Amino acid sequence: MAGSTENGSGWRRSRWRKAVWSTAAFLLLLPLVAMQFTTEMNWDETDFIVFSAMLVIACGTYELAAMAMENSAYRAAIGTATAGAFLLVWMNLAVGVIGTEENPLNLMYGGVIVVGIAGAVIARFQPYGMASAMMVVALAQVFVAVIAQVAGHFTWVLTAVFVALWLGSAWLFRKAARDQMRVASRA
After folding, report:
1. How many domains does one find in the chain?
2. pTM of the predicted model as reported, rounded to 2 decimal places
3. CA 132, CA 176: separation in Å to the nearest integer?
4. 28-40 as b/e, with b when 16 or more CB fall inside 10 Å?
5. Do residues 30 and 115 both lie within one domain?
6. CB atoms within 10 A of CB 175
7. What contacts 167, CB < 8 A, 6 or more positions away?
8. Which residue of 16, 94, 117, 125 sits 20 to 30 Å from the alpha carbon of 62, by its own alpha carbon?
9. pLDDT tens digit sequence for 85-136
């Protein structure tokens, strides 16, 4: 199985796997606990279902990548990209990045995620192609900020954070590609 080592410890027994799913459970419990102490947090069943689905998709994506590739840089790149996508969707659904969540300009951020998914599929999830895909995602994020600015909304600080995440992921994918080429040249 991919991800296994000679001593039998692999992704199945990985502390990272436990950390990923434990963090997801913790994040899901936070709103429930907060609702006990404040009326500002008022989630219904739909909110919990949507948030649970987002967590399962994010954690499942990371887990599939971790099982498929032993390279730690690749795993970190997937983790960074997945965390960025998760945060972008969560923020957009919760409060909206541009104005409120009802502002139709916020739909452009869905396009950023679609660009990332399409790029990953086109790259066949291979590290070098994924690096290029993440750079295109960073450009898409900047493009959305430019459109938001033209429409009178300032999103550059938040855009800088997400561009840093996408470019960090691209850098990690490049590192994974170099590592993969180094291993292949030794064989």
Report:
1. 2
2. 0.87
3. 13
4. eeeeeeeeeeeee
5. no
6. 18
7. 134, 135, 138
8. 94
9. 999 999 999 889 998 889 999 999 999 999 999 999 999 999 999 999 999 9
